[in-house]
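cron nightly-structures :: item 1 of 1
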Amino acid sequence: MATFEPDPIAAAKQRLALALRPRIALIGLTSCALALPGDTEDRISVTDRISHADAAGPGAEAWRAATVALVTALDADPDLRALRQRLFDVGVASAFEGDHDETALWTSLVLRCPRTSLSTLETLAADDAGIAPADRNEVSAQFAIYMLRNHHRDWQANRTKLPDVGESPYTPPEEWNLLVST
């Protein structure tokens, strides 16, 4: 049976609020562009995974109702709407959609971005990071190296060929090691 967080709406809202920041969306969408020759698309999970058997089992109606309530609340949330609109203004569309694999089902917020809009999204990330216009070409080149070293399918080989530029230049240094315990 799927495990549910005590307040799935609050947990999903927090996850989306982080993922919809331009610098985070830029990494996810650029990573997709590196991995896929077609459309740039990233998915942010908003519901827990539930096995196909559980989704069709005795609790199916309750699970469907909870999913509808969650997605409806997230879609109507004014803070999330503002974040989604900010990305939409630079060419990144988003919509809630069902996802699945061979073992489970879940719902995601899907971000879609034409490759031509990635540079506009990068400009928004640079604006948020306070990067001066005169420095943006150099910072963009650092970001390209960061992506090739960390988010490309040949990342291991790229790490031997390309210089270490640290974390994404759009991420504040104080957030570089948030997941590293001291």
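cron nightly-structures :: done
Helices lie at 8-19, 22-35, 52-55, 60-76, 78-88, 115-129, 136-150, 155-161.
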